[in-house]
Amino acid sequence: MFNASHVILYSADAEADRAFIRDVLQFAGVDAGGGWLIFKLPPSEIAVHPTDGPSKHEFYLMCDDIGKTMAQLTANGVTVSEPVNQRWGLLASVTLPSGADLPIYQPLHPTAFDLEG
Fold this sequence. Notes:
It comes from Paenibacillus lycopersici. The protein is of the alpha+beta class and 117 residues long. The chain has helices at residues 14-23, 66-75, and strands spanning 29-31, 37-39, 61-62, 84-85, 89-95, 101-107.
């Protein structure tokens, strides 16, 4: 039924964050017209969590080795928070040029992104 997902990050400095995603995170992309870049993401998965507050959406980038990922990002001048050990994974965040945080984590749970079908 579906063949992909489309994630939107709203940014106070979209141009700088797009350049960061293209040049630092090295995601391939296309220009949808007028400089509106759309980037190819790694395989993804979706989870639905209960909440006592209002419904919301979050976006995380996953990695196999958060220490190695953080070292590579830091070597490229990226500000990365110290990882925190959560029950479900090792969590850190990258500071985008706009000042927004982009969470990254190394899952310690079974993943679904590589399932067939």
